[in-house]
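pinned: reference chain
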Amino acid sequence: MPKPTPEEIARIAERVDRGEIKALSIKQPYPHHIFHDCKDVENRDWPTKGRGWFIIHAGVSKSECAPSQYDLPRGGVVGMARIVDCVEQMDSDWFFGRYGFVLRDAFPLPLIPCRGQLGFFRLPDDVLAATASTLRAHLQERG
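pinned: its structure tokens
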């Protein structure tokens, strides 16, 4: 998946700082597959009209993990992606849900610990600030 440009990361960081971008909790190993194995859809039992960037929170549960995946980061923000569509059918090996949030431009971030919630949710201000700061640090590393 293509990565966002430095300019886009700077705009995303500003929006995160202002609390304009919500999070969605996803059980590991699926965030890992989104970032590293081209998982292009997040399966849900409910649809969304939302489009655009969201923060990926990895839940604490190990219920979907094989023992070899227990060391994947859990219990916090682990990255970001864009939702570009919500579909009921998709030609993807990853699609198996009633609804699929079609993903693009996903990228990982170092774990920022915080609690998750059901559905899309607003992160606490301190976690938003830490996420925005991490995005800006990512820009510095790339620049």
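why pinned: The chain has three helices and six strands. The domain at 6-142 is CATH 2.30.130.30 (Archaeosine Trna-guanine Transglycosylase; Chain: A, domain 4).
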